[in-house]
Amino acid sequence: MLTLKLINEETERVIRGLEKKHFTGAREAIENVLAVDRQRREAQRELDQTKQQAKQLAAQIGALMKQGKRDEAEQIKLQVADFKQKDKDLQELMDRAEQELTTLLCQIPNIPYDEVPEGHAAEDNHVVKSNLKECTEQDTVGNWDVNPQLGIDNPLPHWELAKKYNLIDFDLGVKITGAGFPVYIGKGARLQRALINFFLDEARKSGYTEIMPPTVVNAASGYGTGQLPDKEGQMYHAEVDDFYLIPTAEVPVTNIYRDVILDEKDLPIKNCAYTECFRREAGSYGKDVRGLNRLHEFSKIEIVRIDKPEHSKESHKEMLEHVEGLLKKLELPYRILLLCGGDQSFTSAICYDFEVYSEAQGRWLEVSSVSNFDTYQANRLKCRYRHAEDKKIELCHTLNGSALALPRIVAAILENNQTAEGIRVPKALVPYCGFELIDGNPF
């Protein structure tokens, strides 16, 4: 969440940032925060004064008793008791103000960086890079008309290819669990495992330490990374134990550093993790949910960084280069989008999406989001670091990205590499798969 220091010192910049995100009632929300904060600070000042006065009066009681001035001492005791009751009332007022502040701040999104473009929705996002053409500032999703020419006659969508080569059984998943829980079979399962190992090995080569975290977290972890209270309706909730199935490895991995003070010399911290991810995807319908396009359970490798403020933009750049390198090695047509203010997530300060082209569906599929959250998550997490020289303690910056999410990568590999003989496996994956072609042979 935004810090009170930022809101108090740069009020107008915060309001402008919220308006760029098209946050309704931005000025009113910030003014409410400032009003409650003033109330809290005034109560704190009054509490400090009453405590001091009570302490001074209490110091007189012993001396008066020694002098035999019992009546005066009793009167002072009554005054001290009044001050203690006032202290209690002021403390309750402060506690209520603190709770109200937290509630208000949790409802306010992060503000975008200056370089984030104006815009309301996905069509206003800027295409900043592609392996299909040089990009210009005028290239927004709304006017992008460049699609690859892969020379495939009558390409089949991946759900038909999966059935043809017995790679994925969507109906069996419905039988076992429900829609959005596919069963991978034979070479389909091996392709999944190959991608997982490939992505993890590439992350290790880039200096990321692998983590194997739980896929179930408590409410405090969901709050720390901003899934709660904003996205509780999108997560599966085990109500008896008040646990949540993770929507992404970002949640458990970033929460490793909740309530932690790191040493400056240890930054940046670079972690990666493979997990299953679970999303209810309430309200999804139509072509967006066909096949692997939108699932309730899927595999994903996440990269997470904890960094110093002055280095986090460089970290973000390195993460973008890492994800782009994966798509190059998979030989997929891709484009990189800088999200506009209106299409950014609640918690991000800047976000780039990676999309791959689906030949058979004739559309672009998002496969990664790489975000810098500035101090927004760290403030919720109380994730801080200690400067090496002056020992000053400061909030960290947190960053994360998919590297990569598997379902749409699988869809793009199947659709873009289909031939008359079968589906060609990208060269980088062959050592992991153990086969070069997906055909009728299950082995």
In short:
This protein is α+β, with helices and mostly antiparallel strands and 443 residues long. The chain has helices spanning 4-9, 11-20, 26-66, 70-106, 158-164, 170-176, 187-205, 219-225, 250-254, 312-329, 376-381, 406-416, 430-433; strands at residues 126-130, 168-169, 183-184, 209-211, 216-218, 237-238, 243-245, 261-263, 269-278, 297-307, 334-338, 350-358, 363-372, 384-386, 393-395, 397-405, 423-424, 437-438.
Description of the structure:
40% of the residues lie in helices and 20% in strands. An eight-stranded mixed beta sheet has the order 1-11-12-13-16-10-9-4. It has a three-stranded antiparallel beta sheet with strand order 5-7-6. Strands 8-14-15 form a three-stranded mixed beta sheet, with no helix packed on it. Helix 3 packs antiparallel against helix 4 and helix 5 packs across helix 12. The chain is elongated and about 110 Å long. The protein starts with a helix and ends in a 5-residue tail after the last strand.
Distance, first to last CA: 51 Å
Instruction: Give the helix level as a range of percent.
Output: 40-55%
Largest sheet: number of strands, sense, barrel closure: 8 strands, mixed
Q: Which strand-content bin applies to the residues?
A: 15-25%
**Side-by-side strand order of the widest sheet:** 1-11-12-13-16-10-9-4
Report the radius of gyration as a whole number of Å.
28 Å
| Contiguous helical run count | 13
Structural shape: elongated
> How many extended strands?
18
Poorly predicted regions:
none
Average pLDDT works out at: 93
The SS-based structural class is alpha+beta
